[in-house]
């Protein structure tokens, strides 16, 4: 399977090979269900945040459309849904995010959630962890 979405893509390296700095943004861009906490706090995102979004997507898919603690109630306003998503994600630990069928993702999620803004992910290791988890 190949998943590609460049709708909100940005450069993380400036000219001269220097990594961008993390700074506050004016608006939220993305999907509340899959966005990282950094993104929900209106901060510049990096490769780490893309991988965090992948964690939420995989958890959502493996657990049949559910992410622990995230209430997707159609009666909530967009602002209430946004606040709910942010609060749920701030409360997540590896153990309560990777529950039920997604328990197999704990090591993969741990590796990603410990990355810092400018860290270069070890994609080969992440691929191996994901292959083992979904084996």
Provide keyphrases for this structure.
two-stranded antiparallel sheet; globular; mainly alpha; 135 residues
Describe this structure in words.
This protein is mostly helical and 135 residues long. It is globular and about 45 Å long. The model has no long low-confidence stretch (mean pLDDT 90). It contains six helices and two strands; from the N terminus they run ββαααααα. The chain starts with 12 loop residues before the first strand and ends with a helix. Strands 1-2 form a two-stranded antiparallel ribbon.
Question: Can you lay out the helices and strands and say which pair or pack?
Answer:
Elements: E1 13-14, E2 18-19, H1 37-40, H2 47-62, H3 78-91, H4 94-97, H5 106-113, H6 123-134
Structural class: mainly alpha
> What is the residue-averaged pLDDT?
90
Please give the share of residues in helix: 40-55%
Number of strands: 2
Largest sheet: 2 strands, antiparallel
The helix/strand order is EEHHHHHH
Unreliable parts: none
Q: How many H/I helical runs? A: 6
Shape: globular
Cα-based radius of gyration, to the nearest Å: 15 Å
Q: Please report which band the strand proportion falls in: under 5%, 5-15%, 15-25%, 25-35%, 35-45% or over 45%.
A: under 5%
Straight-line N-to-C gap: 14 Å
Order of strands, main sheet, comes to: 1-2
Summarize it.
The protein is an all-alpha fold and 135 residues long.
